[in-house]
Amino acid sequence: MKNIIKQLRKNKGLRQEDMAVSLNVSRQTIISLETGKYNPSILLAHQIALLFNKNIEEIFIFENFGGK
What we know:
Largest sheet: 2 strands, antiparallel
Number of strands: 2
Strand content: 5-15%
Keywords: DNA-binding
Order of helices and strands: EHHHHHE
GO molecular function: DNA binding
Pfam families: HTH_3
Number of domains: 1
Domain HTH cro/C1-type: 5-59
InterPro entries: Cro/C1-type_HTH, Lambda_DNA-bd_dom_sf
CATH class: Mainly Alpha
């Protein structure tokens, strides 16, 4: 699943460490999210959306897996 977390974080002037502290996760989790190596739980996705004042669908791009 692709996302625009890095872009949003930079636009808000946050460091990865700042974002990690705000979300109560590790900096490594933020790195993994930004590079697409980790998909967040629905709870974490919701917290990220709240942090950036966006809807989950605006941040995370769900790729089509062959279905409609």
